Input
Amino acid sequence: MSSPRPRPGILEIVPYVGGKSAVGGSAPVAKLSSNESPLGPSPRAMEAYRKLVVDLHRYPDGGSAQLRHAIARRQNLDPELIVCGAGSDELISLLVRAYAGPGDEVLYSRHGFLMYPLAALSAGAVPVTAPELGLRADVDALLSKVTSRTRLVFLANPNNPTGSYLTGAELQRLREGLPTDVILAVDAAYAEYAEAEDYDSGLDLARSSPNTVMLRTFSKLYGLAALRLGWLTAAPGMVDVLNRVRGPFNVSLPAQAAGVAALADEAHAEAARVHNRTWLPWVSRELATLGLHVHPSLGNFVLVEFPKGAGRDAAAANAYLEAEGVIPRQMGAYGLPDCLRISIGLEPENRRLVAALAGFMTHRPHS
Ligand SMILES: Cc1ncc(COP(=O)(O)O)c(C=O)c1O
Output
C-alpha cells in the first residue's frame, strides 16, 4: 500500500539535523555543535521557570503581552509591532507560509541558514540561492536573482554558519534594490554578540519600512534554546498577517516567563557577551596558529576550514574530535564539506578543543 502523497516540495525536504549532544562513552563531552550559550540561562530565568511548575495546567497568554512589553522597552520598539514565536524557526516558517506559496521564490545566499530552504519547501515555494563572495552574502548577486516570483529574501546577519555579516550600508542597499513587494527578512539571531562598528541588525530598517522584518532569538546569548523563544518586529500590516497565521498559544508559559526574567538580568547577558569577546578571538587565534583557516566571525562560533585529503580533512577532524569528546558540527548540508563549525564553549572546553585539534594536526594519519 502506498502512503498518502504530501504536497509537492515536501518530499524534497531533507529534515534538519541538529547538533549532536553525545558521542560513544560516558565521559563528559564538550558540546560545541549548536551555538548554545556556554554560560547557560540567567539564574533569574531559571527561577521564573521553576516557579511555574504549579501553573502548567493553565494556557499561556496567547498574545505574550508581558514579554512583548519587556522586549519593546529594551529595544525601544512599539510592543504592538512585535510577534513572539516558538523559536525564530517558527517565525521563519510563518513568514514563508503567509507570504509564499507554490511557485513563489524564496531567496537567500548560498551558505545561508538552512531553515530558509526548508521553510520554503514546506510551503510549496521554491528556494533560490545567490552565490556568495568569500563566504559572505553578496548584495549584487542577491539582487540579480530577484524575479517576478520572488516573495521573500532571507539574510542571516551575522550568518550561521559562516559568521560573516553585511554592514548597515550594504543592508540598506539590498533593501533599496529590492522591489517594494519583496519582503526582506533580516535574521539577527546572533545580533547580541555582533560588535563590529558597521554592523546593523536591521532593527531600524524594520522600524522604518513596510516590507522589512527583523528576527531575534532567546536561544543564543540568553541561553534559552530548550524553551523555544524568538520574536520579530515589522510594520503593522505584516504583524497583523503573522498574528492571523500563528497558533493562538504558540509561545509556552515557561518560555514567556523565562524570557521576561532573562531580559531583566542584564548582568548575565553582559557576562555572556564578555565571555564571547574573550574566547572567540582566542579560539580563532589558536586554531589559526595550528595552520587552519578560521573564517572571521561575529557570532558565538567559528567556521574552520580543513585541508583536503591526507587524513587531515574536515571529516577526519570531526571523527578525531568526537573520539576526544569534543563535538563540532559537520557542514556538508551547508555545501561546506571542508569545514566544521565550532561553537565557543566554556574555558576548559575551548582549551580541550584546541589541544585536540593540535593533536589532530600533528598525528600521523592512517593511510
Ligand atoms: C541564523 C539563525 N536563525 C535562526 C535560528 C533559530 O533559532 P531558534 O532557536 O530561535 O529557533 C538559528 C539557530 O541556530 C540561527 O542560527
Notes: The mean pLDDT is 96. The first strand starts at residue 30 and ends at 31. The CA atoms of residues 67 and 259 lie 7 Å apart. Residues 35, 87-89, 113, 156, 160, 187, 189, 217, 219, 225, 230 surround pyridoxal-5'-phosphate (CB under 6 Å).
